[in-house]
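New to this. Please check this protein:
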Amino acid sequence: MRLAFMGSPAFSVPALRALVAAGHEVACVYAQPPRPAGRGQRETPCPVHQAAIEMGLPVRTPARVRRDVAEHEAFTRLGLDAAVVVAYGLILPKPMLDAPRRGCLNIHASLLPRWRGAAPIHAAVLAGDVETGITIMRMDEALDTGPMLLREATPIGPRETTAEVHDRLSEMGARLVLRALEEDPPAVPQPEEGATYAPKLGKEDGRLDWSETAVALDRRVRGMTPWPGAFTALGGEVLRVLAAEPAAGREAAPGTVLDDRLLVACGGGTALRLTRVQKAGRAAMEAGAFLRGHAVPAGTVLG
């Protein structure tokens, strides 16, 4: 088929590669514009843009498309059978949604209608969901409400992080969208019952609130790995918490260190043991190695 591909982050790259490997003609790749990155703040193409360059595919990087009539017309002139959209980052207007013969197919990283929105994988881990999955849907003008073509579930392990689930879903999405294009399954409307929303996250969402239970904080650490990253304050400095696990605790003010091995009091008399941490500008360390160079005695309060 003659396709456009629209995506930006690393999550989207396996789908682009799979479409090309399957013999589909990718007439154009749409990606977010290059942005400053790294210490030098050099303009850097996003992962999909970089992959498209490697494969010799034409790329367009409009900053916005919703009201840009020239972009609508250019998209229509591509003469597409379908567009595949994976975490593109821009809202497509009706003229673009209607232009491909079979519409715009979206690879969404949840079992819709649960976790519509920008951060469905984070939301599933934070909520303690036992499974998530991929939904291939035909896009409409609302946010993640279009009819579903295919769904496939995968369990979320009790210790899995967002990063681990992300990588598995990325490969699943690539496989499922090939099926959707080949089989053209009937579209099934999404039920409204069970619909939830996963908003876009910011850095502050990684802050650990020690008044929450250890179970909730464990989910936050895993849910915010690798981005935006869970963190707390130690002696006025940011301490990133890269791994942790619930442990037996006792009643104490939330955030109080209970022993000499980074066991921290949480809400409801629970406790969380920090097992891998990182100070700003320093290497990540296992807790034992960190404590050999940074004494954190019982009674220290994290904030």
